[in-house]
Each structure stands twice: as C-alpha cells, then as structure tokens.
Amino acid sequence: MKNRLKIIAWYIFFIYFFAFLMLSATMAQIDPAPRYHLFGWLNKIFADISFWTTQTNWMFFIFFLFVALNGKWGLWKPGKVAWINFLSYFTLTMVLFWSALSGSKELPLVLWANEYNSFIKWFITVTTHLVTYLIAMIYYFFIVKKEKIDISNWYKKNLLIGWIYPIFYLFFVLIRMLIMNYLDVEHFIKQASNSEISWIEENHEWVLDLPIYVLSTPYFFFNPFVVNGKELIVAGTMVCLLLITLCQYLLIWINNLCLKEKNTSKNNQIIELNTEEKLIAYIKIMLGLIFISVAIYKLTIFSNYNFNNKENTLYHIMYIIVYLFALILNITMILFAIFRLCKIYENKNIEFVSSFFSGFFLIHIYILPIVILIPIIAERFSENKEVLLKK
C-alpha cells in the first residue's frame, strides 16, 4: 500500500511538472519578452533554452525521473556527487535571479528581460526560480539517505565534474551569440511576421532599434560587445563558476553536519614539503605577484570609470569587480603558499580554488594568466606520485 501511494505521488508530480514545463515553453512562444517578438518559433525556442533557468528546470525534471526510478532496469541512480552538483546549479539559479536579475529595470537587459504583466508569468517565474529549488532542497535533506562526503579530496575530481555543465552552457551561449551576430538584426526583422512587427511598433517600438548583441545574449554579463565587454564576460563567467564552487562546499558541509559524525581529521597534521612542492609554491607566489601588479594597473585606468550614464553603470561596476576579485584571490593564493612553505597551515581545497581563479579572472588579458595551470597541474602530478609511492 505504501509503495502504491509512493508511485501515485510520483505520477502526479511528473504529470504536473511536465504540464508546467509545457506551459512555460508555450508562453515563451506566444508571449515572450518584448525583444524576442522579432523571432520565429525556432529562434524563440533557442532564446528560451539559452536561459540557465530553463535548462536547469528541464534538468530538474529529468534528474527526478532518475531519482524516482531509483536504479531500476540498471539505469543510473543519482549519488552524492550528482546531488551536490545538481543543488549547486539550482542555488545559482535562485541566488542570481532574486539578488540581481529581478531588480531595477534601469539595469542592462533587466529592462529588456521580460514583462511580468500577468499572473501566469509571475507563476512561471516564481516556480522556476524558487519553488523547484525548495522542492529539490527539501527532498534531498529530508528524504535522501545521506552519505559522508570527503570534503578534503573534493577538489581532485568531483569539483571539476561539477564545472562540466556550466562550461558547456557557456559555450552554447557564446556559439549562439556569434551565429546571431553574424546574421545581424536586419535578418530577424525581415523574417518577423507582419503581426509581430505591428505589435512591436504599437507597444515596444524601441525593440526595432536594439543592437544584435541585446538579442543574442540571455544575460547582460555574457556580452563582450559593450563597454568593458571583456571584463564583463570574464566577471560574469568566473563569478558564476565561483558561486557554484562555494555552493558545492557549503552543501557538503551541511550534508556532513546532518550526519552528526565527529570530525576525525587531524588538525595538528605535520606539513612536510619536498623540493618539488616548494618550487611549485614559489612559482605560485611569483605568478600571484605578477597578477596583482596587472590588476592594480588595470584599476588605475580611470578612463574606464564612467557612472554618469545609468544604462552603462553596471558595465563599469563589473570592470572594478573583475580586478578586485583578481586581487583578493591572488593575495589568498600567495598567503596559502607562504603558509605551506612556513609549515603553518595547509588547505588544498582553498589553495586549488584560489590558484585557479587567480589566473582565470584575468584570462582576457592576452590569455597569459592561463600559465597558472602550470603549477596546478604540476601539483596534481606531485600528489599522484606521492600516493603511488605510499602504495
């Protein structure tokens, strides 16, 4: 009887949520954001699925199908790593929307994002940006059986697995943007139906004057063709990836806290470094000092600051954000390298994250900061060598 009720509950859940996704997709066709009225049905689909929210909500539906099947017929069963990454993506969806994208209409692309002028639109928005997140969180923390997650080794593989989908999403958005920029806005105006053009002229005539980059990017921070565009896309990409990373570690900490297990890690562990590890630490310090110098230099170019134009204010703020993040992360990397050399303290998770982002927040500067991968990869080889020797 209990299993029968469980099956019925799953059926109701999936029928309801599939109907909701169909409603959302239908609204994206018949009443999309004003700027998307220029598109035909196929481009409206691509515009809709270019949003992180849309993709993660379809992911929600597919993920819970596997959860409900619970490994039946030999199918994949979501484990602890999958749950942590899945919840991290949804946390990003919720945090970004309610903290930034639902804010002032004076901000770039918030003005052009959508018009919440009906109950159905608000219902879809609240469901996709809040309700699904709460369902996922409640299900995981109250129903899924918890397993201990080794947070100390998370950075070695599982952290990178969690980055695969966001990086795929970034490439999807950028490729679509480049294709649309090649076609240009006139291509879409010519293809738009007379009824859509009439609607735009009557209600949102400004849409016809929009540059192509406004039509081709779902979010303002994925747009390299505006003021401080390179800094904007780097800040948008790296901040989102950093937020996902922080969410992963927060969720692991909460997960392990729920198990109420005693911490068996050795706080007074002796730090021993071989010559190779010392060399890697010195390389990190040297690169960190170079990156800090670059960030300070960029911050002193005051011609890139112009807050008189309200529409471009956020673009100038992003310029400051990207180099401040670079400063903070490089200082963190240097400090932890010094701590290791002095045998004071080590935390390989923080070292890896700060090292990676210290360079990639400056990746737009002739791609030179990619050299940060040299000590990161060398460190990984050194760790693997130590493991083999111990075996």
UniProtKB/TrEMBL annotation:
This is Uncharacterized protein. The lineage of its organism: Bacteria, Bacillati, Mycoplasmatota, Mollicutes, Entomoplasmatales. It comes from the Bacteria. The chain crosses the membrane at residues 7-29, 49-69, 81-100, 120-142, 163-183, 232-258, 279-297, 317-341, 353-378. Keywords: Membrane, Transmembrane, Transmembrane helix. It comes from Spiroplasma cantharicola.
